[in-house]
Amino acid sequence: MSYGEKKEFKKDYGPRVNEYIRVPQVQLIDDKGENLGIVDTEQARKLALDAGLDLVEVGASAKPPVCRIMNFSKYVYEQNKKKRQNKGGKMKEQKEFRFTPVMDIGDTDYRIKRAHEFLTKGHQVKLTMVKKGRQSMDQARAVFSEILTNFTDYSSIET
């Protein structure tokens, strides 16, 4: 995209409703869920109006489009409710804390404290010991086992 060009964004307004459905015929499903077949759009609007409901396009890609007679505001409410439920079911994140064998005691204590905070919030915590160069493996194991003693009150420690 060159300088000065505007990128067009197509906003999704949701399904077309009532007079915004501008095709000559639609596949109609009534408010009880019964398929009424292919009907003129004007006749479908009239049926929806007589029932005190809306004509909502639910299958725009079909030929002819599939429309349903329903209460549109209730439909939108149900869709938003589903979105909220799916959003709330998000998995907890896994937090990683990296330690080194030569790390200062203050830094180690701070990371242990932060790991405890995340565990109490319900997150999973991954503790990693990073050994660089010629650092002793025995020293790294000793420091890491000392760090793990702070987490003995939690039910499972995987190694």
Automatic annotation (TrEMBL):
Keywords: Initiation factor, Protein biosynthesis. Its main location: cytoplasm. InterPro entries: T_IF-3_C_sf (IPR036788), T_IF-3_N_sf (IPR036787), Translation_initiation_fac3_CS (IPR019813), Translation_initiation_fac_3 (IPR001288), Translation_initiation_fac_3_C (IPR019815), Translation_initiation_fac_3_N (IPR019814). Residues 17-85 form the Translation initiation factor 3 N-terminal domain. IF-3 binds to the 30S ribosomal subunit and shifts the equilibrium between 70S ribosomes and their 50S and 30S subunits in favor of the free subunits, thus enhancing the availability of 30S subunits on which protein synthesis initiation begins. It comes from candidate division WS6 bacterium GW2011_GWF1_35_23. Monomer. One of its GO terms (molecular function) is translation initiation factor activity. GO terms for cellular component: cytoplasm. It is found in: Cytoplasm. Belongs to the IF-3 family. Gene3D superfamilies: Translation initiation factor 3 (IF-3), C-terminal domain, Translation initiation factor 3 (IF-3), N-terminal domain. NCBIfam families: infC. One of its GO terms (biological process) is ribosome disassembly. This is Translation initiation factor IF-3. Residues 94-158 form the Translation initiation factor 3 C-terminal domain.
